[in-house]
Each structure stands twice: as structure tokens, then as C-alpha cells.
Specification:
124 residues; alpha+beta; Ribosomal Protein S5, domain 2; 4-stranded mixed beta sheet; 5 helices; RNA-binding
Length: 124
RNA sequence: AGGGUCAACUGGGCAGUCGCCGCCUAAUUUUUAUUAAGCGAUUAGUUUAUUAAGCUAUUCGUUUUUUAAAUUUUUGGGGGGAGGAAAGUCCGGACUUUAAAGAGUAGAGUGCCAGGUAACGCCUGGGCAGUGUAAACUGACGGCAAGUGCAACAGAAAGUAAACCGCCUUUCAAAAAAUAAACUUCGGUUUAGCGUUUGAUCGGUAAGGGUGAAAGGGUGCGGUAAGAGCGCACCGCACUGGUGGUAACAUUCAGUGGCAAGGUAAACCCCACUCAAAGCAAGACCAAAUAGGGUUCCGUGUAGCGUUAGUGUUUACAUUAUCGACUACUGAGGUGUUACUCGCAUUGGAACCGGGUAGGUCGCUUGAGCCAUAGAGUGAUUUAUGGCCUAGACGAAUGACUGUUCACGACAGGAUCCGGCUUAUAGGUUGACCCUCAUU
């Protein structure tokens, strides 16, 4: 109990809160609710761990420069880290769409926020 | 002062809060092994008061404890954490596995010379050619005098050169005037030619015109029917020798040659030299579950099948015994069904060995390393001494927010590691050199 308490009150992002291998990813892909956006697609599936986990799929095809891919990863992780208590017991996988490459940095942040706000509304 | 060339460096800073990835350290937790002790159970022996209890030994489980280890958990502290191109993946190496005595062919690459280097297609110095007033920059820069091929259009001709126009000669025809000779009525007439002009024609001719990116040295004089390196002078070119240079190459040195051979090898090709292939998803190690392979051991019974031995007849059968987890059934035993019993369901079991999937560990950062000083060298580079350790992730870490400051921040993110090349790049700093202007 102490562990979960600590996780709710803290803003850290340890390895437990990430999807780490292909099995974990494919579990989400198998059966997930989808939330679309111009920039991103969010796949959501409940888990029974008691905490949320985040996975990122940023295709080289859509975002060609490694620099850009890193930027998107960091921005998404940052939002997840700061709002981790609201996501409860869900596995999230965020995919990028083709249009991301043409967006500016401020646009990317805006789309990111919209997407997660819609998800938060859904789960209440 | 302005403009330029080359080279080197830098690639926002500071503070706070939250967060990520290794390392060191202190504690904490877990696991494993180990030491000792307690409790419970099993088996054996033994004693007594014998349906029981005690003692000794053995094996197993469990709790506490000692020590040690660990790729365990969590927390505190300390310290570190992308680039000049990390990029493109275009060369060259190290390393790994496979192959491999050596040689040749094919194929690929390189291509002025010398040096540097682990190596290179890189770098340095030099030569030659081109560009620029210059500093400098650019160059696949061996061979077309081995062979084969290619070249639009134009042009007569595009290659052991070639005759369209033009120029000249021969021959033929025509023309008119002049000239010469003969005759003459002195007006002329006739005849003639290696003369002139025009046309045709046999030839000569590369001076001139015209075509083209390119047409077989240039200028002048001589020469000739006209011309022509046909001859000569000067310039240029080629070759031989000398001289300088390690060499490429140079040569205001000497001689020889009239001068012959166009371009294209990033066309085939020839010559010289170099090259085994695949890549860290290389590769090495540990290794769960499930299925499957091998070896050994273990059985309640029946039947089949086979092994071995005996007997009978006979040369293949019968019969008796024996062994066998090879096959079928059975289910003693095992497993499951909450503890026990029954029942039910299900099934051969155990140990070891080898391969090996998921997963994990290593490879993985101490290296042709960096810095300083001194020596060698024009330089690339190298030698010596001293000092330093500077990312190591693996669904993949350097970020976010706030404040402040300035010149307001470009291109852009490691993935085995080095040496290069190429490409992208806001701005800033430094040095050397060149040109122009001004001043002295």
C-alpha cells in the first residue's frame, strides 16, 4: 500500500511505468480503444497492475530525423509523468501519424495536450 | 580602412524545482550457500513402567542465528552523462565467425612523383595543366605509336587523309581582236602558234574560299606551270645525348629530324599495383516452460512379439523355463480432486546427457585514446617523459518548467570502436597571407 501511495503523490517515471517488450505492446494492440487526432493515435487498454504504463511508437517512416523523434518522446513522457496519477490502471500506446512531421513544436504540444485531455474525460 | 584567401577554435551562460541512465558509497530488503541452535516428522538401533515414553544416530521440513555472495528491493549522499558533423554509409582498418599451403583465371578497385600511416580512394610536400591582378584554388593527371569501336548536323573530305569552288598544265571545240608569215587589185585575203578568252577534258595542286567542336605546325623569303617543309631563316614541335633533381619533371645546353601518328580509354581494351566473404541482429556463455532426442535404473497382472537355454520330433514347428518398459489392455504405483479414507479422473515414473526457444549475461568501452613539455622533420607525422580516464543505453537516458542575462541560440541525437571523405550549419573568436586606397 505504501508503494502505491508513493506513486500517486510522486512525479517520477520509473521503469515500472513503461511498456518494455513486444508481448506487452501486442497485448495493447490486440484489443484497445482508440483516440485519434491530427498528430497522434492513442491506444488504451485496462491492466490489472494498479498503475499506468506508457509505450511510444514513433515510426521512422513518419518522423525521419532522430532529433525530432526524441523531441516527441520527451514531450509525451513529460505529460505522462506529470499526470500519471490520473491515468490509473491503464496501458497507453501512443502512435504518431504522418502529419506530425509538418507540424511546429508548439503545435505538437497543443495536439498532445488535447489528446490526453480527451482521454482523461473518458475515464472521468 | 575596405574587399578577399587559407587555417584553427567555439556552437548560449547562470540559479532554482521536478524527472531519466550508469558508476561509487552508506543503510535497508530479498534470495542462495554456509555455521550453530530450537521445533516437527521419517527410518534404524536401544532402554523402560511396552496400544506408550525416553535416549542415540540418520534423513527431510521449518524458525531463529553466524559468515559470505548476488544480474534482489527501497532510500540517502557523492560524482558523471551526445556531436562538429553523432548524419550520409562513400572508402580504409581493428574485432568476430566462416573459409584458407600456394598459384592462376574471372570480377572489383586504384592510376603524375616522393613521403606519412595499422590502412586507405585519405593526408603532406613536389611536378605538370588550367582559373584568378594576387593570396590561393581546381584536376580519375598511365597508354589511342597493340587492337577493336564511336562521332548528330554541316562539309568535297572525319582518317594508311580528302579535290566542291578556286589556281595551273595537257588535249579538244568555239570565239574575237592583236601578232607573225605568205599573197595582194594595197581595200584586204589566207595560213600559223607552246598567245588570249569561254566551255569540256586527262592530270597536278592543300597557298585561298566555304563547313565544322575538330581539316596533317606558324611567319617571311626563295622556288614553281600552279603550288607545297620542296628549300632556307626565325618561332614552335618531336627524338637523342648532356646537365639539375631520389623521382615526376625541367632545361636561356648540344645535336638530329622537315615535322611522320586528329579526338574519344568517366568506349571496349592494354599496362602496373591492390583486394577471401559476411558483419556486433558479428559472435561467446547461462538457460525456464512445453514438445521432442539419447543413456541408465525402476513393474501389478494378462496376452502378443522377440532374446537366451533345455526337451521332442525334425530342420522347421511344438513345448517348458528365462529375460525384455517393444506393443496392447490392466492400473499395483504415481499425479489431481482442500487434510484423511473411500470413490472418481488421469497417467508409466525417476535420474543423467546433448541440442536449444523465450529470457538473461558478456561482447561494451583503456583506445592506432586525450593533454602538456622536449627532440626529429619544410610538412603530414613521429620519438621520449610526465599526467589523465572522459556516455555505455537496449521499446533505448541529457529533458521539462520558472527566473535572470547576452550577441536571442543554426544544423542536428551515440548504438562495437577507430582513421578519413562527403553533405548540413545562426552567430561569434583568433592567426597567417593577398589586393585596393590613404598616411608616414
Amino acid at each position: 500500500m505504501q508503494k502505491t501511495d508513493w506513486r500517486l503523490t510522486n512525479e517520477s517515471f520509473p521503469r515500472d511505468n513503461r511498456l518494455l517488450n513486444a508481448k506487452q505492446y501486442s497485448r495493447v494492440f490486440e484489443k484497445a480503444n482508440k483516440i485519434h487526432n491530427k498528430a497522434f493515435t492513442l491506444l488504451v487498454r485496462k491492466n490489472d497492475l494498479g498503475h499506468a504504463r506508457l509505450g511510444l511508437v514513433i515510426a521512422k517512416k513518419n518522423v525521419k530525423q532522430a532529433n525530432q523523434r526524441n523531441y516527441i518522446k520527451r514531450q509525451v513522457r513529460e505529460y505522462f509523468r506529470l499526470h500519471i496519477q490520473t491515468f490509473r490502471s491503464y496501458d497507453l500506446v501512443l502512435l504518431t501519424r504522418r502529419d506530425v512531421a509538418s507540424l511546429t513544436k508548439t503545435d505538437i504540444i497543443a495536439y498532445r495536450n488535447k489528446l490526453f485531455e480527451r482521454f482523461e474525460k473518458q475515464i472521468g
